[in-house]
Design a protein that fits this description.
The complex is a heterotrimer of chains A (about 290), B (about 400) and C (about 350). Chain A has about 290 residues and is mainly alpha-helical. Chain A has helices spanning about 1-30, 35-50, 55-80, 90-110, 115-120, 140-160, 160-170, 175-180, 185-210, 220-230, 235-255, 265-275; strands at about 125-130, 135. A two-stranded antiparallel sheet of chain A has the order 1-2. The chains are: A mainly alpha (about 290), B alpha/beta (about 400), C mainly alpha (about 350). At the A-C interface, helix 4, helix 10 and helix 12 of A face helix 1, helix 7, helix 12 and helix 14 of C.
Amino acid sequence: MQILANIVVLTSLYALVACGYVLVYKVSRVLNLAHGELMILGAYLLVATSAGIASDPLAAIALTAMFSIVVGLSVYLLLMRKMTGQPVLAAVLTTVALGILLRGAMVLIWGPQQLNVGAMISFDNASIALTDSVRVSTAALWLVVCTFLVYLGLLAFLHMSRWGMRMRASGQNALLAAQRGINLHTVYALAWTLSTFSGSLAGVLVTLDSRIDVNMAVIGLKAFPAALVGGLDSLPGALIGAGVIAALEVLLIHYVNPLLSDVVPFLVLIAILIVRPWGLYGTKEELNRV
Amino acid sequence: MKIIQFAKSLVLSATVAAGPALAADDEVVIGVSAALSGSAAGTYAAPAEGLKLYLDLLNEAGGVNGKTVSLVIYDDQGDASRAASNAKRFLTQDDVQMIISVSTSATFAPIISQATRGKVPVLFAGSVCPAETMPPAKPLLYCSTGFSAVHDSIAMVDYLRDRESSDATVGFSAMGIPISRAGMEEAERLVLKADMKSAGVEIAPPGTADYTSFATKLIQNGADAVLSWAPWAVQIRFVDALRKQGWKGNAYVGHLAEAELEMMKMKDPNLFTLGTNVMLFEDSEATQTLVNAVKESGSNLHPESILDGWVGGIVVEAVLEQLGEDTSAEAINAVMSNIEIDTKGLRGGPIKWTDDNHFRETIYYRAYRWSDEKSAMEIARDWKAYEVE
Amino acid sequence: MSNIETGIGKMTPATTRRKRLSQNQVAWIGLIVLLVLLPTSATPFHLDIASQIFIAGIGALALMVLTGIAGQISLGHSGLMAAGAFTTGILYKEAGAGIWITLPASVVAGAVIGLIFGLPSLRLRGIYLAMSTLALHFLVIYLGGEYEFASGASTGIFLDPPVVFGFEIYDGYAWYYVLLALVAGTYWGCRNLLNSKTGRAWEALHANETAAEALGVQVANYKLLAFVITSGIASFSGALFAYYQNFVSVEAFTLFLSIQYIAMIIIGGMGSLPGALLGAVFVTLVPYFVEWLMEAVPYIGLDITTVSSASYAAFGLLMILFLVFEPSGLTGIWKRLVGQFASPSKREDTP
């Protein structure tokens, strides 16, 4: 049973990270390989706010959320906006470069040592007993709840609100959407903002659950097969993909060889992609897209 | 803050030539290859600063017997190919008389291979001690670092047997790098030899972000106690993961650089560290010197994190003291291969090297824990000496 | 077919390129003479950097052919180099094999892995394909790590300097000339390949797969061929790396290494073979340049950790600057400079 709880928690983490990939890819066909770094930047923003501005944990988290929105917006306006109209490969590589830049900058600012964020904002990550034999930490429980809320919110937003419709329309056919008067830049900026916000949320919660250092950005890489298995442009797909990858990882650690938990998700990913090249729920794309 | 720090380190390093320098008679050039950036920097950047701090102060005070030290520090990012090119640079461009490694075990192969070719002694100070420094020691390779996978494991198992019942089940956690795996597999062997049970060795791949599932496995295998020897970040996240699932047994981990500060935050009386360095709460003369030096340098590093590099500085000083007119690499190696170094109260006893043993003849371990009664750190067991076979 | 849709592609027809190269022959000979004479005034440290550049250059040429010419993205470059290094290391350690066995074996191992991991490219494209090459990376690193641990080589596998015709290659000068010859040979081989039917087929399928298919190009075969050939070369450069550094260890082959190779071909200029070499020079020199800058201008900060992370960040920034402001890379800058200074001579060429 504890294993099941572990799978659910890990699924939530991967799903919350993966939805960031999906949001940006869905509207602009750009894969944001700096997502892991942006996620950890969110957590470091919490370190900054709790150390400098707000002493109350909730206020610090709220401020961090606001900062993360600013970060997402600036990434688009200052950098990715310049890449619109460029080849997609160039845009993807720009995000790789952004990731390297962010990593270096974060070590410059916050140092290479790992920090205990929970202790900084006096967050007590107590163990909660769900049943006699199943326990999860407070932060992990928050993670599950937040992921649920974020997905609910995003799905409602995409399918019911005006801007959500516009985002979906731009993703399906940017040219047509632009002709119908949708401002693509606003749509892209919105996608980057939402993506960075959800990523930062994941970053804050996962670092509250353990510690923070720059290497935590690797979670971004691990959530990656999750987004791909489901199909890069489908939110429900990302959720299911996260479930598949998380279950695989936990079961491999538990029953086979933990060292395989890095390799096997990618091999499964290839197998699934060979059968369904656009993931389980992704939309089939036109052929000549790099 | 940072700017003051820069300015101060600038003043300090003014006495040390920054770039390539030819050795004057009264100057010993030492090349340092350290993981100053990259994923391992959290562990190794601080001891590298400690080494520099100690030797800067030594130079300021006029050196030893008129000999000063010129440090040439290159970053290797904990990366093997960078370390290789650093080592080549030390030997061919900087003409160093000694190399000091403060980096990951990944960088050892190129450093050892180049230094052996160039016949220059290597001191591992802050890097984990490679097997090559232990008896039967290979020539030219020496280690003063406070931690060593296999010896720490022996001390941990020995201490664990004092504390746990004789039929306890013990779980082990390692990181998927050879040195950590070797240490924990040795520990498991010792535990089984002592007729205790093993809950298995959990090996987490490098870059694991979530240790929950590894911890679940050990708990379900009935671990009463858990041993871990890995980089501090891995050890402690593993303990976190155990506690998050309500596990209340004793955890034994290696005493690494960040231990004291972290344990004071965690306030976990069932977490023990085994190691060869003192913790700074004891406030002896030796620890005060170190703490003051860090304060005066304006660095924001926690003093305990530089200790292994600082001890490396003490080693260099001791070697210079015994060095005669000849300051060649060969002469330095001759001194190093037979020396007893006073660790000035920062370790349980001296570092003694002989022809056959470049690690330590006797290694002294102490156990520390958090005490709820005192609401402070305490010594759980005082120095115990282990002969190195 | 516009540039935007095809990725960073080289649109120059092969014939013009051949012509231009033959007219630049004088410049090439000059460059070769310069490179041959360079060691006479170089310190061993310079020779070491040059040798690193040559090894990186061989790897970058391979990736340029695969990504820049044939249009297949790969994040598995570091894994392929590891495969070559380990094939060499294992054959040397287990069987004491000499360089005449280890190097060809490494090339074959790389080619076979390339074939296997090229197979998904028949179904997958773009980002999805990049992912499957990422799996290659993790797999090779996992296997290499298991071997290292099982063989008790906790600090890596040591290699003795290779012996060629009774001559031990250890000295910096010897390595310089050997690697220079090898990088020149690789360049020459790649250039001939691109001017052949194969090269034209790759350019066609990069530009538009469907159209290439319609024109009778056997897309699947040529794609796999691109993977096999470039993987063999990448693996070869990994084996050279192992010999040059005298050791093999999984920890030398990180994902960041793959990214550095991608940076080389971007900074050099996508689709251009000389660009791959320029990129290799540039990316290898960046950390030394930052270090030199910090030493030359001591007031910009001295904390050693700061310097190193600044160098890391600077690398990311440079990549961004090239991608945003100079997508055609160093080759683009070079061409503009040549265009400005030598426009009269260029006018003669244009028919």
